[in-house]
Protein 1
Amino acid sequence: MKIFAWIILSFFFLVSAQAFTILGYSPSNYNDNVATMNANLGINSSYVIEDFEDNTLIPGLTIQYSNGSTTPLFNASWAYGTYLWDGARVFSAYQDGGYPDPTFSFATGVTGFGIGISNAYLSSTSYPTYIYINGVNYGTIGSIAGYVSADNGRNIYIRVVAGSGEVINSVKFDMAAGDYLSYDHLAVQVPELSCSLLVFLGIALWVSRFIKK
């Protein structure tokens, strides 16, 4: 049965260990030439980019604030300047302004996630912003190598890489009280079926046919 195969597949993903590599890139890696910047950030052609230039998100991506709102905060009239990691607009989150603690979720899971963060001047040891991957706390953004504290400027580009057989379902930023962060140049890498998973799927389908008989 097909249902049996999907149950086995689901179990395969559930038993996979949760381990991720978090990479940080300082603002010096920013470049007006996006192709050059992507090369600096380790982003290749297998990534899909969300530039936040409009209200339409890339397929499979949803954003929700901790107060339940799913309406992204955009401001077309604001000259974002040094907040930008590409284009002319950013996605913003304001802890005390009704747009707190954004969670970026992916319908099918991704193997790579990247995002540029700006204006996190309160996200230090005293006022930390934490990063959660699949609901697990991985520490503060200020503790990631490459982070630069800067008001009205870029702080860091963060890239999360999933281990073999793993996927990233969600990334949340639990912000410091009173902080106002901007996010830009979100990059996601869609997983490819591994050889072991293909073999596992083949076995599952063979077993389902045997049971059906």
Protein 2
Amino acid sequence: MIIEMAEQLQSKKIAKNTVLLYFRMILGMVVSLYTSRVVLKVLGVDDFGIYNIIGGVIVMFSFINTFLTSACQRYLSFSIAKDSIDETKKIFSTSLFIHIIVLLLFALVAETAGLYFVYKELVIPEARFTAALYVFHIMVVESCMSIFKVPYNAAIIAEEKMNFYAYTSIIENVLRLVVVYLLVILPFDKLIVYSFLHLFVSVIMLLWYKIYSEKRFCYCTNLVRYDKKYLKSMTLFSGWNLFGSIADIGYKQGTNIVLNLFYGVVLNAAMGIATTIRSSIYSFISNIQVAANPQIIKSYAIGEYSYYSNLIYRISKYSYYLMLFLAIPVILNIQYILQIWLGNAPEYSASLIVLGLIFCLIDCLHGPLWTSMQATGKIRNYQLLVSTILLLNIPLSYIALKLGYSPNSILVIQIVVSLLTLIVRLLFSCRCAVLSMTDYLKHVILPICVVTLLSVPLPFYVATGFEDNWRKLLATGFTSVVSIIVSVLFVGITKRERYSIFQMIQKRIKK
């Protein structure tokens, strides 16, 4: 009884944190959709494409930061679960030391290899090359600040202070609106101005994260020193995550560069639009997983394996349902959405968005399995195999475009590779992270397949009776909501989960 009550309290905390993250996400999505439209209009297709492709190069070389982020969050969550302040202080100060080293390494790599790549490989109009160089150097500085912010961000997530993100989202999105306003009125090169304004926002957000963390958490100090024990273990852990980070950059940003090599900046603009919508919708899913990840790691750290495994199954399932809930109306109305949002969208934008959302339906199942392996710390063989498979995206995409296939083939390849890596992740989690293959198939794969088969046909059938307009959007949106909710309630969740939902609704009604 006590264990069940504790699990309910933990679940309520995850639910509360998820709601706070949703507030942050919805506000960010609305602002992002508006600012993307204005920025595309002000910059034009070529400059917008240049900004995206330069950003892709920066992200490609920022893997030296990314592979350390998960280590920082994992070690902080572990020590917080064990309630050891001294240990947590050592981990944070060691993490700060590591990220300063990483920052310097990133700047060196970006300003040498990255700059060489911009000069020799990217297809950029000659008249805009100088502006592109300004953008590149500004983005390097911005990325360095992002690297330095990682330990503070990891501490906030490990402590599950998601209300901070709700408040921060208001500040950040107001600043983004100010950026768009200044971009329109300032009489200078718009691409360079946009980059400088983004840098200004990054400076403010870094200071905000740092001040908050140092005020709220006693272990967040300015003392930069390292503990040999944690330096070694965190570096080894991060080293194996390096392969995962390279692979992540490969299938997300490397393909964008492959597109540029064959089609130039116009297709990069289309991919940028597709990525904006995909990221905005996927942020719904990441909010659930970000809220649950600390609980997954902490429950594993203290040996609560029953709660740990059930939480992974539930989060995987709920992530898929929410992704399906959002993806179907967008897929069925993508032409109308693009027309209202952008007016004249770049070619291939619609098809890239649709395929990207199908990819997200598979990809949203990866997160909880990834966290389960991070919790164990047994990631060497896991990262080697998964990363090798993910890196296949780059040569396969290049071969497909070289053979004359359309840009859509890149997303088709990503979907196939994502299915394969999901199987591999599951096998490793069952072997190393005390999950059960039978339970995963029973509690995750079977329910989501049944819900998909039951809920998808109706909105697709309704869509055939309308032209692309607001009536179709409302009709398909309504039928999607009804069919998915009914399917989830009756076949997509357990009796216990259904009972908890109905009880929660009754309590809300009584209030």
Protein 3
Amino acid sequence: MELNIAENRNHLNYSKWIYVKRILWTFGKFFFRNSPRIAFGYRNTILRLFGAKIGKHVHIYSSTVIWFPWNLEIGDWSAIGEETLIYNLGKVTIGEKATVSHRVHVCAGTHDYTDPALPLLRPEIRIGNQTWICANTFIGPDIEIGEGAVIGAGTVMVKDAESWGVYAGNPAKYIKKRILKH
């Protein structure tokens, strides 16, 4: 058995309309990336113009890389830190009051490694309300992070995280229950 990379490379993975949107986003990205650090509303407006569903009081930094804004939904009062990569070939949903810290990689795109042509897959990623994804974390394809979960710095998430759980490590392991102080 041998890989058939030529079939993968000669196949269009998207509709023509998606290719047009990608070209247009190349120009939109310029304005997004070259905006003042505190211009959160301005960047949110640009993302909305390209189809993102962005809640109120959302902070997304200009160094954040978002591949397909039309596949992004973020709830009210959430934040995405600097130099975070949102590789959202599939839909990425981030709940309300969620924090995705700096240099996180949210990866909603992969390939079917069992198929010789390695076709592109676009699974969803769902990050719940009140979650905290700490710095330098990798969130793999088709993952759900439950409400209130904390994913420790440098963690590699390849399985779902239960609500109000604390996870850390490579691969991620459940550490303990998250209990908020009153």
